[in-house]
Amino acid sequence: MVFAVVTPGLWRTPGLRRFFHEGVAFRPRQHVDAVLGWGDKPSSIKARAWAARRHLPFLSVEDGFLRSIHPGRSRQGLLSLVVDDLGIYYDAHHPSRLEQYIAQGDASAAERDAGARAMQLVLQHRLSKYNHMGELQLPSSTPGKPRVLVVDQTEGDLSLLRGGASADTFARMIAVALADHPAAEIWIKTHPDVLSGKRRGHYEQCRLDSRVHFLAQECCPLSLLTQMDHVYVATSHMGFEALMVGKPVTCFGLPWYAGWGLTHDVHPEAARLALRRGGKRNVVDLFVAAYIQYTRYIHPVTGESASIFDVIKWLACNKAIEQEGRAPTYCVGMSLWKRATVMPFLAASTIRSLRHLSPDKLSRLPQDSTIALWGDRHAGLIARARARGLTVLQMEDGFVRSAGLGSDLHAPLSLAIDPHGVHYDPKSASKLEQLLSTSTVNHDDAARGRRIRESLVRNGIDKYNLDHATTPVLPAQALGRRIILVIGQVEDDASVRIGSTLVKGNDALIAVTRRANPDAWLIYKSHPDVEAGNRIGSLKPASETLADQIITEASLGACLVLADEVHVMTSLSGFEALLRGKVVHCYGAPFYAGWGLTTDHFPLPRRQRRLTLDELVFVALCLYPRYRLPGVEGFCSVEDVVDWLAKRKGARRGRTGESWLVRQGRKAGHLAHSVLQHARYV
């Protein structure tokens, strides 16, 4: 099918065409099957006339009920859209497709189950049409004194006109609320468009009873509704959200959720509407019809058709990160390249970069400021900032980082951002350690961890995902012997300096491994940054003699296939070995040690909990790092990154390695890009 758009405003809507894979054309000359128009707005009159002249069906489209993080136009575009071939859901004068879905009540058992689960997730993450607003806690009220919410709307809102409401409706609504609840606090929720100055509301200039309080700030609707005892609306969608949280709702207009026996309907036409709608329904019935049957969803990362669960997961993740980033943030002591690559991960509303932050300057920062630092650098600053009560974020590469080395200026796809410490410091109770110690991992979470683990292994995904031309093989003299893979690291890396105080350096690691395993076949693999000549950590000649085989220019995954055991200080390679079912010995304090999955030579008394491998994977990869993909708005999931890397690996398969000149040219390109990125965020 081909759909026609005839109004420029609708054609410019970001992401509109993704919802119609059959094809959308602007004022096409060729055959089309239907015409699209935006709801019941005046702009749709032209589209309706265009369709009528050609005897074509007209479809109304509108924002879905889980639309986006921010209102307005953004690069991300819409995540959900409703498409109606009968009318539009907010027009009570005519039946809509949504009304028919609810009236028929023919949702399958699977749809009802999905609806119930999705509604619980919406409530759990407090999701709404827009999701940029923070939580709100009202001042404490007198015990036993109820709270009543009256929801204002903007003048000229089409849902008011089509829902049988007017300015007089709002005057009557506040009067009834005061009369019905003589001992209650009455709160009026001002519409966000009124707060921003874009539109006018109905209560702006009113002088009202002293019991009435104006809520003149943006806030998450569900966080407000949970604090109310009764909600009064004209046609606002907040009325349905109030039903979802179990609050009694009185409707003075005729919204889509009225007339089904769930609301107290006082509009003169309410009885006639209820008769047309034809019977009682419960909240899940309405949710399934509105959010699943009536609404189309787009995957925020792939741009393809998606389920409501894909959108909920993305919105929940991005909303949580956005709420954490409300404070002004100062990046201290980072290079231009480092600043440019980490700033997109901070999601802060205001970001400034500083070479240094003296004690005097620190004392003058606002109390809600956040300090962002790389790793464990600036220990004195960290101590002073935390003593002042400021938030300090310590950042490190994520565990599935990139398609290339950071030292070759490959930007990260994931970062660990920790307000408590760094995950490789055994002296700090990092956020990751706290998550591993306390998170409740249910059956679905563990199953997700298993799927991620299997995908990582199947696709050969590791931290850097380098191209390697060679495949290592074992010589004949290794046959019949226990194969131990010893993983070298960058020796001045913070995780070695801080997290491996018993075995300090690659020479010491291979020596202690050889002493404990005199008859094993020892394979030594150095760190890719050391192999590339970018960092220090080469073995001394005397230490090289302790290894039976030294492997370079081969992937970690290929080396792990050969090994029975893997010995590390703090290397992430130990985690990747666990994913592949290998025995792992740890001589330092990596995040995955101490949970009953590794043989630990370094004491970790705080880590008493026993975890399964899938629980470890879920917490470490799903709950801890933040993930972003090039050219994609917002944060994504680890699964999105793994899929992206797997496709990239498949596209590169069979190619030869890059020359030195090509690598330097690519570095120059990355550096130029970092300058542009830095200008965008600072």
UniProtKB/TrEMBL annotation:
Pfam families this protein is in? Capsule_synth (PF05159)
Q: Does the keyword Isomerase apply?
A: no
Q: Which InterPro entries match?
A: Capsule_polysaccharide_synth
The answer, when asked if Transcription is one of the entry's keywords, is no
What UniProt keywords are attached to this protein's entry? Answer: Plasmid
The UniProt entry's GO biological process terms, in alphabetical order, are:
polysaccharide biosynthetic process; polysaccharide transport
What is the protein named? Capsule polysaccharide modification protein
High-level lineage = Bacteria, Pseudomonadati, Pseudomonadota, Betaproteobacteria, Burkholderiales
